Amino acid sequence: MTLKFSELIKSDLYRYHGNITIGLFIKSLLFNKGFKFSFWMRLAKHYDSNPLLRFFPKFMFSYYKRVFVSDINYRADIGEAFCIRHVFATTFGENVVIGRNFTIVHSVTIAGKNGHFPVIGDNVYLGAGSCVLGGITIGNNVVVGANAVVTKDIPDNAVVVGNPSKIISYKGSSNSIENKYEGTDL
């Protein structure tokens, strides 16, 4: 199901605060780096095909990419309720597919290899410095630990650490996803 732009923004805002109000929206847009970045990213994607309106959102997104030293492509397919806790040094391309309730922190890399790109499920948490590389699939409810390098498919509910990555448990991400968006909270 594809959400409207306003619903995507509300779902993102919910992930940061567990609530949605106009005051939280304004406060987050002014002071929350992750929300500000994802707002301009989503706005740039929303207006990408409109030649009259696309300049300003793309300009603002490009500005924040430089400010936060991030190289996330606004054309990436990112599901609702995206939460980026620390924007700095994060990168992924336009062919990446990401599910809902996705949380990342700083220095995360999601990259393709030989023309194939990762597909990431719902309720996934990627820790600081983690790398997800190649045409792999990461299942639902997965935690990828800090500095893990993932180059193979990861099943649902796995907790992965290390370089090369290995599964250490199947306890999943239930304790790692704050303010989980269920689709009825808006």
What can you see in these coordinates?
Belongs to the transferase hexapeptide repeat family. Pfam families: Hexapep (PF00132). By secondary structure, this protein is an alpha/beta fold. The protein has one domain: Hexapeptide repeat proteins (UDP N-Acetylglucosamine Acyltransferase, domain 1), CATH 2.160.10.10. It has four helices and 15 strands. It has helices spanning 5-17, 22-31, 33-46, 55-67; strands at residues 71-72, 77-78, 83-84, 91-92, 97-98, 103-104, 109-111, 119-120, 125-126, 131-133, 137-138, 143-144, 149-150, 159-161, 166-169. The strands form three sheets. A six-stranded mixed β-sheet has the order 3-6-9-12-14-15. Strands 1-4-7-10-13 form a five-stranded parallel β-sheet, with no helix packed on it. α2 packs across α3. The two termini are 15 Å apart. The relative contact order is 0.13. The model has no long low-confidence stretch (mean pLDDT 94).
Features:
single chain; 186 residues; alpha/beta; UDP N-Acetylglucosamine Acyltransferase, domain 1; six-stranded mixed β-sheet; five-stranded parallel β-sheet
In a nutshell, what does this entry contain?
With 186 residues, this protein is α/β, with parallel strands linked by helices. Helix content is 27%, strand content 19%.
So what's the overall shape?
A: globular
Cα gyration radius (Å): 16 Å
Number of domains: 1
Uncertain parts: none
Mean pLDDT over the residues: 94
The CATH topology assignment is UDP N-Acetylglucosamine Acyltransferase, domain 1
* C-alpha end-to-end distance: 15 Å
Q: Percent helix among the residues?
A: 25-40%
User: In the CATH hierarchy, what is the superfamily?
Assistant: Hexapeptide repeat proteins
Please report the number of helical segments: 4
Strand order of the largest sheet: 3-6-9-12-14-15
InterPro entries: Hexapep, Hexapep_transf_CS, Ser_O-AcTrfase, Trimer_LpxA-like_sf
Family: Belongs to the transferase hexapeptide repeat family.
Pfam families: Hexapep
Protein name: Serine acetyltransferase
